[in-house]
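Lecture notes, unit on protein representations.

Consider one protein chain, 216 amino acids long.
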Amino acid sequence: MTTPMRIALIHALKHSIAPIEAAFALAWPEARLMNLLDDSLSADLARDGKLNDAMTDRFLALGDYAVATGANAILFTCSAFGPCIEAVAGARAPMPVLKPNEAMIERAVTMGKKIGLLSTFPPTLVSMPPEFPASVQIVPKLAEGALAALDRGDRATHDRLIVEASKDLRDCDVVALAQFSIASSAPLVAQATGRPVVTTPDSAVDKLMGLLKAKA
């Protein structure tokens, strides 16, 4: 019997845990998941306003810890830390180390040239657009106040603010939901915009399955 693959999930927001676990349960229930949460990462980024060497060192340390536990792959679920995650990927190659959004970006660019990017965390709308190829047009949109509502435990307000914000993206070819924490609102966004919607958790699980089954 083959040993199940162990996937380390590293989070900077506690809200990211449920959606990625749900995506694995649906698509790849055999995977063994391990959650590492440091919610001071997002708080410190919001405070500092930019990524720095100290932040990269913290990500490298998280990567070292995940590897020490026997992980076969690492998936970061925090979309505002691209360069830090790239540093971990470089240090850990050829082990699969995925940014939360890279699989979704690969999927979105096959679906159209004008991509709406919806987020509830302002730094994500700074760090993420450059990760898309230059051949597509990104329309960034912040659902203001939605993350604060989720932090208060008010999912209804969170979802309503996301739906309201998404209406500005109706003329895009596809709407990309930039964070794991908003993936569950995909059906609402699809209904409000009439556009196809891609989410980070589903895309990431598909890509990891492909990479690890190719290695197995």
